[in-house]
Amino acid sequence: MRSTFHGLETARRGMFTQQSALQTTGHNIANANTPGYTRQRVNFVQTEPYPAASRNRPNIPGQMGTGVQAGSIQRVRESFLDVQFRTENNKFGHWETRSNAIAKMEDILNEPSDTGLSKTLDRFWQSLQDLAVHPEDEGARSVVLQRGIALSETFNHMSTSLDGIRKDMGYQADVTVKDINSIIDKINDINIQISEVEPHGYLPNDLYDKRDSLVDQLSGLVNIKVERVPTADPSLIDLNFNPDGKYRIHLLDDKGASLGLLVDADTNTITEINSILDPSTGELTTLTFGGNNLLDGSVKTQGKLQSLRDAYHETYPDMMKNLDDLAYKFIQAFNTQHNSGVGLDGAASGNFFNPGTQIGAAKNMKVILIDVKQIAAASSGGKNGDGSNALKLADVRDDVNFQSTYEGYIGSMAVDAQKAVGMSTNSIVLLDSVEKRRQSISGVSLDEEMTNMIQYQHAYNAAARNITVVDEMLDKIINGMGVGGR
Predict the structure, then answer these.
(1) First-residue to last-residue Cα distance in the chain
(2) How many helices (H) and strands (E) in the chain?
(3) What are the φ and ψ backbone dihedral angles of 244, each rounded to 5 degrees?
């Protein structure tokens, strides 16, 4: 025979389960604006029916339900969207950083403008042509000298500024490495905490959220792959209890091949990226992971760190070398032509610019001529008023293809900048699209939570009313039966 108190137990289970759902709904509402929070839900599970199939079962028409229980409190999250988000976040981190690096280079070169190298050089050529018309005019000679100094200072400023930004990129790379190492250390600590909770049959949802938020940050810095390593007893895993386990995180190269483990879930250890920044020179001297050299370009990954490395080791040094080559070629050609002419005193004047070496030519370029009378405007053996050599000096621009070469450098930089901006824009659009889809599933909707709260409240009230009804029935049995004849 079924228990007289069967209805009380069924209603009690209903009340407690609806109460758990209300508390979880309140937790969702409280964290509606918490970054990285994933909404949670209670998985309702029917309890075992009565009676169980057995020889001594009571003779009743069929099995009766015994109520409901909270099977587990689970996050509502789509792992496929997490993979998509981290892939796009990695691309965005890579291209945004590259776009910013090239934008800083564009600011330094400042072309086209009235203060850029191209305009400064035009003024220098114009001053030489004016000198050819008035070779004996000290005013015209003074203009040539001053504009030569301005040209040298422009080369100096550009080279020094590029080198300063290059060193800043190295510093940022070093800071990024420290961020990466800090993140993987935190992920490893959370892995350990999760492994201590899951075997007891609980889902540490808040720890999952913290870890996923850290992995999202890490994906923007380097290219990673996440694998799950179970910690709970496989016999406990079912539709209502499906723990995430620990995360094993690989560092990938730009082809998607693993370079090693950043986080080893099996041994609860991490492998840090190693970087060394020389404080005396500001140079990034070391960038390695395990046995892989990430600085020399033999191994490439993708993300913010790789873009910073590229800017430090390739983009800026290449442009500085281009300026050095251009300055050195110009200085040699100009000095050669200048040495073939004579000043106002009819004597050879020597070099106009310091000859220097090809490496560092732009940074060290300097006008070494002091007296304007020594500017070799006349050809050797020329007469008074001869300005033929000044014209030849002005023609050096065409002889060394200065303008076309420089425009080629600027054009190449502009193409790289356009590509980086385009890729960054595309990446952020795709990233936002994936994030919106992810939030549509995992984010907290206050309207939905309010609806759930009302639903659970009514169910709770109904279960409470059910207890009242059963109580009245029991009162009738206990106090109202067996009183006849008294």
Answers:
(1) 29
(2) 12, 11
(3) -75, -25
In 3D space, the residue among 105, 86, 183, 80 whose CA is nearest the CA of residue 427 turns out to be 86
Query: Has residue 46 got a pLDDT over 80?
Result: yes
| CA 354 – CA 369 distance, rounded (Å) | 9
Q: Are 104 and 165 in contact (CB under 8 A)?
A: yes
Tell me the one-letter amino acid at 397. Answer: R
| DSSP code per residue over 183-228 | HHHHHHHHHHHHHHHGGGT---HHHHHHHHHHHHHHHHHS-EEEEE
Task: List the beta bridge partners of residue 292.
Answer: 289
| Residue 471 confidence (pLDDT) | 85
Residue 170 confidence (pLDDT) above 90 = yes
390 Cβ contact list (under 8 Å, min separation 6): 128, 129, 131, 132, 135, 341, 375, 377, 378
Q: How far apart are CA 395 and CA 389, in angstroms?
A: 10
Quote the pLDDT of residue 226: 95
Produce one character per residue of 45-60: b if its CB has 16 or more CB atoms within 10 Å, e if not. Answer: eeeeebeeeeeeeeee
| Residue 379 β-bridge partners | 341
Categorise residue 303: left if φ over 0, alpha if ψ from -120 to 50, beta otherwise: left
pLDDT of residue 383: 65
Q: What pLDDT is recorded for position 235?
A: 64
Q: What residues contact 179, with CB distance under 8 A and at least 6 apart? A: 221
How much is the pLDDT for 237? 63
What is the C-alpha radius of gyration for the chain, rounded to an integer number of angstroms?
39
Spatial separation of the C-alpha atoms in residues 337 and 74, rounded to whole Å: 81
Residue 76 and residue 426 in contact, taking contact as beta carbons nearer than 8 Å: no
Cβ-Cβ contacts under 8 Å for 386 (sequence gap 6 or more)? 135, 377, 378, 379
Going by C-alpha positions, the residue among 328, 384, 363 that lies closest to residue 135 is 384
Tokens of 53: 């199939």
State the pLDDT at residue 485.
57
* Residue 32 CA neighbour count, 13 Å, CB half: 10
| pLDDT surpassing 60 at residue 457 | yes
466: which strand partners?
none
Q: What is the average pLDDT score of the chain?
A: 89
- pLDDT tens digits, one per residue of 402-423: 888 888 999 999 999 999 999 9
Q: How far apart are CA 77 and CA 215, in angstroms?
A: 15
Half-sphere exposure of 443 (CA within 13 A, CB side): 13
Beta-ladder partners of 269: 264
